[in-house]
């Protein structure tokens, strides 16, 4: 009986030996030459975006439904980071302008917006959403010119997401009691909102839509680097007939922002930006009764387990850190690879980097655009240098970079340890720090070993591991077999020093209401 | 019915050597290739390259020598010479029509004769007849054989049988080249497609091919991407370059360019050649030609001006 | 000119024929040449429309060939409308089933966009709809207009629920074992909806929207007395982006259909706002046949104008709650 079974097994194990074929045997490439060539065969021609856009030579402040010059009469230049050319002048708002804006917001709140039924407020937001959809192409071009991100991303991600945020929150305006069972939600009043330069228009939508849906009025300060699309959004508010003063936009610098979060008549502050500045704001708001939400930096761990679908995991790594040039607070900037698959993953990652196209953001085939500013470029360079000095090895996409503009090629660093600065500090650029682990518990420990806690990624084919790790990662957003996925219905925000408060979904409304 | 083997599965299970595939991410990645903007010179070069990779196909019960004559003529010269468009890579026909295709094209032709075989399209026939059919097609002059795998055996988990049949057909088709059709529409999951690709390559396939075109869905960008990734891993493991052919459902020039972009960015320049990449189609050719002529003449075209195949 | 030529060649019939031609040959594109100079002062004959049934995205006559006249409350004949038979009901359900499958697969965001588009189309035709309601029901113009305005707003209201109701009605359940456990609402499938007589438009939207926003398709049986506004709504839905078959609208003599609705095994739920006692008995009996979900909505005509008809809990009557478990572990 046993011999029979053994015989069967041996037969099954025997590899079928084909008789020799008469034609030439196929060439076998020796191991050292097994390389993919990504060369010049069939190069893509330039594919510039051709939608005509008009950038005004000068943009004023948007206060009380009108465009008005700044009290100081001062303006600052807005630069295209891909060409270093001046695009236009932007008004420099100061404390006086902020005061005017807050007054307008207060008046609009007391006399119009808080009295308006939710259904009508919602219909204004629906109008804004529709107009954004109609002007999407033009806005995408402006966003790419002002901030450096590829047109492919502003067109296919930023703009549709902006419209979606307005649509989603339009629908909440008359349904708020369902979001807070047992309580009556009421608006807070005037919200002061300060947003960053990495997703200028999208961050404006993330802030303005829920605030308005909940019945608040807004004073918004865009980043100094990227103010143009916010001001075009202001025009959209005018076109939608939004009552004067409901949204006010005061452009300026850090001091302008300070004037907002120090203003005594602002009920709520929402800030997205660096942890450093977030702490300053927290200090300023302490003891004032102002409600505060902060969405700050991150150093997300992207964890690849050995049973992950590998080719898709590599896509996830790439979209996790090179999307938007890595200017993403929730970027997967620390890669943890299970040791057994390390060689394979690095090999695939290296090959994948060779197909990334870096260059003119307005070329439709560009994957990675310009670094947003000279200051940010210097910061990235400094950190990468420190990484090399501390013993990490660097690999970079060998793509040709334009002569003018701020550029940094997609990069990854290996031989990184937990104590390296590149493993601890947020680089906010297209730079990935790679480390290994042996067991899932070790991965969790290392992933959580950071003061940040915004997001994390887990790649595995096994469902129970996903739930276990998602449950134990100390991060506000966990992406399983995915990365950088966003939806207006999905709450976003951090643990620990990545901030507090959530944006999006039912939970995101809580920041903009008082419950009684 | 074979009993389960007593040897520990890990030693010989092909499943252990094959990666799984995440559906959502692979479909996103595949869709991203359609976002590439291929314009002007790149577009013209790409379209001509696509023609050179076309297996111009006619697989109908009502095919006759006369029909095949049109097909061969069109494959040899798709359009007036002034547009400088290359011949197609091959014609693809049923075994009964191989002889007249060969006769029409001649012994040495830039256009190869590919024959479907092994009980195409279902494959639900005894191995004996499938091998006989293959040998006759090659004897009649086929340069390439497009076989179908036994999907019934695959879905029943009998990977050994699938492997053995492919290896046997590889022998029978010598010296012709062997393309192995997985019929991805019936395999349904990407995991299955990846596994079937691996089995086919290990059994000696020169090309792996998505579909017969008789079952929906036929070729898709995502399924093709999965197969290209399997080819990539196989190349790194063995040093052998296996070709790939999506077939069925590719009707427009724009789609064909998206496939070429995908090959270029997944396997690189070395696979951008008819020796390693083909497209199985019929109506696609005239759509490509209309695009080529539009680039040359500047006007949107009408089918009236393009000869039927 | 044409009149003259014809008058000459058809001598015996010339006078009667010519008289008719005078009225109907009226080319009013500004080229005076074509005006029949003899008929400048004659009244213009309008073309009458028979209102068709809306099945599978198409406007069809009843397979029975029957139609009925619609009258205003004062007895004035308005127009004819097709009289749906049980076979039309059968066809509507047959169209609704595959439509529901495709509709449910769309993202909630997209469903919301489509319902919002339907609201846009209704808003654009507010004047026509107002007139339809006024002439059908005898309502004063202002009241009819108020109904249309509210109908638009209500459609917008429900459009806003598509990507939110799962958060409010679903749950992640804290079970005692190491399992991830969630409950999500899923559409039940094909929902039959019976509208009341009054008002003639608002209830159709207030009943159909909560059913379809979750991914169901609906077969709406309009009022016998005032069917025209509902059938006009069909024309508006047909020009929105709503896929064919998601909302079907039938009219006729609904009592003929009660038993067939109750007995149809491919209808998953019935929402009855007809207010008719016999309907209630028969339709609720459908539950005994194939476990149809049944909900009666007893609102007065005035209730439909209030928040009582803007109730998201109505959605719960046409969804199924699925709970799934998955272990948490390495």
User: Which bin fits the share of residues in helices of chain B?
Assistant: 40-55%
Oligomer: heterotrimer
Return Rg of chain B in Å: 19 Å
Helix content of chain A: 25-40%
The number of domains of chain B is 1
**How many angstroms separate the termini of chain A?**
79 Å
What is the residue-averaged pLDDT of chain B? 93
Shape designation of chain B: globular
Low-confidence runs of at least 5 consecutive residues of chain A? none
Number of domains of chain A: 2
CATH fold call of the largest domain in chain A: Aldehyde Dehydrogenase, Chain A, domain 1
- CATH architecture annotation name of the largest domain in chain A: 3-Layer(aba) Sandwich
Give a written overview of the molecule:
The complex is a heterotrimer of chains A (516), B (309) and C (330). Chain A is α/β, with parallel strands linked by helices. In chain A, 39% of the residues lie in helices and 16% in strands. Chain A has helices spanning 2-13, 95-113, 118-134, 136-147, 151-172, 176-179, 200-213, 228-239, 254-262, 275-285, 310-321, 342-353, 374-389, 421-424, 440-448, 463-472, 505-509; strands at residues 58-59, 61-63, 66-68, 75-80, 85-91, 185-187, 190-194, 217-221, 247-249, 268-272, 291-295, 301-304, 334-338, 393-396, 411-414, 431-437, 455-459, 477-480, 499-500, 513-515. In chain A, the strands form 5 sheets. A 7-stranded mixed β-sheet of chain A has the order 14-15-16-13-12-17-18, with helices on both faces. In chain A, strands 9-8-7-10-11-19 form a 6-stranded mixed β-sheet, sandwiched between helices. Chain A has a 3-stranded mixed β-sheet with strand order 1-5-4, covered by helices on one side. With 309 residues, chain B is of the alpha/beta class. Helix content of chain B is 45%, strand content 11%. In chain B, strands 7-6-5-4-3-2-1-8 form an 8-stranded parallel β-sheet. In chain B, helix 4 links the parallel strand 2 and strand 3 (112-117). Residues 1-12 of chain B have low confidence and may be disordered. Chain C is an alpha/beta fold. Chain C is 41% helix and 18% strand. Chain C has helices at residues 2-9, 14-24, 86-105, 108-124, 126-137, 141-159, 165-169, 202-213, 228-238, 258-263, 277-284, 286-290, and strands at 53-55, 58-60, 67-71, 77-82, 171-172, 179-187, 190-194, 217-221, 247-250, 269-272, 293-296, 319-327. Chains in contact: A-B, A-C. At the A-C interface, helix 3, helix 5 and helix 16 of A face helix 4 and helix 6 of C.
